[in-house]
Design a protein that fits this description.
mainly alpha, 2 strands
């Protein structure tokens, strides 16, 4: 069906958009976010203020705690970790959008400032063995996390670990249920691993 029936519950997610965007302009289907390759980001601020803080406030206001004031004083992360940044390829595919202005100018190893488009800063380029070792260790940690998730999925009845059938390779997880939280964790680990691999290739 191209459109939902009357009264049907429709899954959606709120993603980051322009500051003046209406809510209807930043709502996408879950699979749109999953298939964006890191171009779209879940609007954590929306879910924290509208969902988490609202629930906390109902509990903590009994003891006089102002949750919204407390949240307003919390420090905010200024940059995403290197493995969570969109790969340059995905930004280039959207060169006509605002995404092209958000290319990171920070080293993927030490997070120091570097030239725009350069993966490593001057200091890390001067220590290539150390830079590659750090990136290899990061990639290995992400691969281990993904392997643990896949192992859990393969013991589930949701379709993981089946023999080759319908284009699904042996040992791969076929399940793509949006009702399973592990599905989102697995996709996130896959995306971060691919980003880290591209950063490692750029540094070599």
């Amino acid at each position: 069906r191209a459109e939902p029936a009357f009264g049907e519950r429709v899954p959606y997610l709120v993603v980051c958009g322009a500051p003046s965007s209406r809510l209807m302009d930043v709502v996408v289907a879950p699979r749109v976010l999953l298939d964006s390759g890191g171009r779209l980001r879940l609007n954590a601020q929306y879910y924290i203020t509208k969902q988490i803080n609202a629930a906390l406030a109902r509990v903590l206001q009994l003891v006089g705690v102002d949750v919204n004031a407390w949240f307003a004083t919390m420090a905010r992360p200024q940059r995403r970790p290197p493995q969570k940044r969109p790969p340059p390829a995905s930004v280039r595919r959207n060169a006509g959008t605002i995404d092209r202005f958000y290319l990171s100018s920070h080293c993927v190893v030490c997070d120091s400032l570097t030239r725009s488009g350069a993966a490593l800063c001057g200091s890390c380029r001067g220590q290539p063995q150390l830079a590659v070792a750090v990136l290899h260790a990061r990639a290995a940690a992400l691969h281990a996390a993904l392997s643990r998730l896949v192992q859990v999925c393969r013991h589930c009845e949701g379709g993981g670990g089946r023999p080759p059938c319908g284009g699904v390779a042996a040992g791969r997880v076929a399940c793509d249920s949006l009702d399973c939280s592990l599905f989102f964790d697995r996709r996130k680990a896959e995306l971060e691993g691919a980003t880290c691999a591209s950063q490692l290739a750029a540094a070599l």
